[in-house]
Design a protein that fits this description.
Length: 179
C-alpha cells in the first residue's frame, strides 16, 4: 500500500489487475521451432548416413589414439574420453527422439480426429442421399411413367377391339365373299 491507504496497481494484491511480469534471466525460445529442430535432428539420427558418419568418427578416433605417436594422442587412457563422448551423444539423442515421437503422435491424433469427423460427415451425407432416393422412388410410384402409359394404352386398345367386336354386327355371308 502507498502512504494514502490505496494499493499500488500490479502488486499482486488486487484481483482485478494482473501482476506485472517478472523478468526471468533464463533464455526464451519458441517451443514450435525447438520441436521442429528436434525432429530434424531425430530424422538425421535415424539414417544410414548418420551411422556411416559415426562409424567414420569412431574409426578415426580409434586409429588416431592407437596409431599416432604417444605425444599426439589426446585420449591417453583406454578410450575413456571416447566413451564419454558417445554417452553424451546418446544422452542428447534419446530426449530429442522422444520429443519427435511425441510431436508425431500429436499430429497423428489430430489427423485421426479430422478423419473421424470427415467420416461422420460422409456417413451423414450418405444417409441423407439414401433417404432422398427412397423418397424419390416412393414419389415415382405416383408418377405416370412411359411404360405405365404404354401398358394403359395397350389395355384400352384391346378393350376397344373387344367392344368393337361385340358391337359390330356379324357380316352377312355375301359381304364376306366380296372382300
Amino acid at each position: 500500500m502507498s502512504g494514502d491507504g490505496t494499493r499500488k496497481s500490479g502488486d499482486g494484491t488486487r484481483l482485478d489487475r494482473p501482476r506485472e511480469r517478472r523478468r526471468v534471466p533464463l533464455p526464451r525460445w519458441d517451443p514450435e521451432a525447438f520441436g521442429k529442430a528436434s525432429e530434424h535432428i531425430a530424422r538425421f539420427l535415424g539414417t544410414g548416413r548418420f551411422i556411416a558418419w559415426m562409424t567414420v568418427f569412431v574409426a578415426v578416433w580409434l586409429g588416431w589414439n592407437i596409431l599416432a605417436p604417444e605425444r599426439l594422442r589426446f585420449d591417453s587412457y583406454p578410450f575413456i574420453f571416447l566413451t564419454l563422448m558417445l554417452s553424451l551423444q546418446a544422452s542428447y539423442s534419446a530426449p530429442l527422439i522422444l520429443l519427435s515421437q511425441y510431436r508425431q503422435a500429436d499430429r497423428d491424433r489430430v489427423t485421426l480426429e479430422q478423419d473421424r469427423a470427415r467420416d461422420e460427415r460422409s456417413i451423414a451425407d450418405t444417409e441423407f442421399l439414401a433417404r432422398e432416393i427412397a423418397a424419390l422412388r416412393m414419389g415415382m410410384g405416383e408418377v405416370a411413367t412411359r411404360d405405365w402409359i404404354r401398358s394403359e394404352f395397350q389395355d384400352l386398345v384391346r378393350e376397344m377391339e373387344r367392344e368393337r367386336g361385340r358391337a359390330a354386327p356379324s357380316p352377312a355371308p355375301h359381304e364376306e365373299r366380296d372382300r
